[in-house]
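Sharing a chain and its predicted structure for anyone who wants a worked example. Both blocks are below, sequence first, tokens second.
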Amino acid sequence: MKKKVHHTDDLLMDLKQGDPKAFEAIYNNYVEELYRHARRVIPCKEDCEEIIQTVFESLWRSRQKSDIRSLRAYLYKAVGFKVADYLKQKAIHQRYADHFRIFEAVYDNTDDTEQVSELIESGLKSLPKRLQGVVRLKLAENLSNDEIAKRTRLTHTTVNTYMHQAYDHFRAWYVEFSKR
């Protein structure tokens, strides 16, 4: 195991002046504990390594303009933010994968494009009018949520909320539909 360096104030000052040896000492001092910190939440070794790499790259890039008072706290906080971003992206990816599977199942279970349109239309009709309009823009014109927000004069957050509600609705609707 590498010997830990405890004079982080000196290292931080040297780092701000661009000393690569100070950066290396900081890296060697913190990399293992930051990795263990990330692994408590993220099971994938490679993803944790990538997060730690990103944090240290960011530290090096912003070394001159940073106002770090506690290096350890800064690094832990940076890893925490990256882990949170990772989990958020993972959840979004999973949600979209689920939504894709639902629409894929509808398309796979029907050979007729007209029948698919009818199925989607019947699912849309049970949504509130405003939500129907947002979903129709998404499906018919393939607009992004930002484009839908501009066109409908809704906030981006509202459009995102509507889309999540629609996906949840279609998920439940498809479960009921597939039981028939």
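Comments welcome. The chain is about 80% helix and 0% strand.
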